[in-house]
Design brief:
A: mainly alpha, 48% helix, B: Arc Repressor Mutant, subunit A, 64% helix
């Protein structure tokens, strides 16, 4: 290795002296030593920067997703519309009805009239007594009003004793009327 | 890197690196500062810090020169040569201004080798690795540059026979 001012190929042309003269010149330096040391320490204390892969991962992922979304949008816009097609399907006839079970037979043998309530229970009678009886039989004791007056129709005034007597007489005179 | 070692490298190489970077760009201080900061962050430290610094400064200066040329196209400001390269307040056998002018007149490939060898202390092999050339080619460039400098400076041979001694480098 040759030093700058003592080259091992020194010759008689005076180049060594010229080199020495040039080397004696001191380059002007504006470098601030303390600032470099400060910056070096600051950068060494800073957290490590994410790698190139990490810095480009999210933009690349976002770009790829954007491409996918655009592609799907184009496909959706250019998707051919399908016409509604009516298809008639022959449904096979259901097999013959299964034989009636004994329980169903028993239920079928019950006469309808036996399970049907009495006719006079379908609607209350014309009088207040009839309505009260109908209400009592149909809904039980809990359905009774607090007072007999409450069972009356709003537009019907309570019967007086004379009116009750006339009704009883009319009933006795016409035994065929419903009671 | 050890701060003491970094400080010694700054003291030893910063002026030469700044002169080396100034061959290409005007922002030599920033380039050299960034090179030292990068060197401090190297783990492990390079085997030859001086050669590593010169390579980093060369790359940074070339990049800065590209940006500077782009900027100058708009600003029309030629700042090359505006700054003094050598310290004028020291007694020299050569005038710093003349040396700067003669050095600036050299082709870039010769100037680069001379600066790296004379002031940077790099060997020809290290310079060859730096500029990706052969050592013999670098040696020829150096000799040609010195010869041109001698002609520009009007130095006869033998030169400066009354000098007190060689300038030592750390």
């Amino acid at each position: 290795m040759s030093t700058p001012l003592h080259p091992d190929r020194a010759d008689d042309n005076g180049l060594t002296d010229l080199e020495q003269a040039l080397g004696a010149l001191r380059p002007v330096s504006h470098i601030q030593r303390d600032q470099i040391l400060f910056l070096a320490g600051q950068r060494s204390a800073a957290p490590p920067q994410p790698g190139r892969f990490c810095t480009k991962l999210w933009p690349a992922l976002a770009a790829s997703l954007a491409v996918v979304v655009l592609g799907q949008g184009v496909l959706l816009a250019r998707r051919p519309l399908k016409e509604i097609e009516v298809v008639y399907v022959q449904v096979p006839q259901p097999p013959a009805p299964a034989p009636v079970t004994p329980q169903a037979t028993a239920l079928a043998q019950i006469p309808t009239a036996a399970i049907r309530p009495q006719r006079w229970l379908d609607a209350p009678g014309p009088t207040a007594t009839n309505r009260l009886s109908w209400q009592l039989i149909r809904y039980g004791l809990d359905a009774l009003p607090a007072t007999p007056v409450a069972a009356l129709a709003p537009s019907e005034a309570p019967l007086t004793a004379g009116q009750n007597f006339q009704n009883d007489v009319r009933r006795l005179m016409n035994p065929g009327d419903p009671s | 890197m050890n701060p003491d070692l970094l400080g010694r490298l700054i003291d030893r190489h910063a002026p030469a690196l700044e002169l080396y970077a100034r061959q290409w760009c005007d922002t030599a201080e920033d380039v050299v500062q960034e090179a030292f900061v990068k060197l401090a962050g190297q783990n492990p430290a390079p085997d030859h810090p001086a050669a590593w610094l010169f390579r980093a400064v060369r790359n940074g200066a070339l990049n800065a020169a590209t940006a500077s040329r782009r900027r100058r196209r708009h600003e029309a400001q030629a700042a090359a040569g505006a700054l003094a390269w050598f310290n004028p307040n020291l007694s020299h056998e050569l005038e710093p201004e003349q040396a700067q002018a003669a050095l600036a007149a050299l082709p870039m490939e010769q100037r680069e080798v001379i600066v790296a060898h004379l002031w940077g202390g790099l060997t020809f092999a290290e310079i060859a690795s730096l500029v990706e050339s052969s050592a013999s080619s670098i040696h020829r460039r150096y000799q040609a540059g010195i010869h041109t400098l001698r002609e520009h400076l009007g130095v006869s041979c033998p030169l400066l026979s009354t000098r007190t001694g060689p300038t030592t480098t750390d």
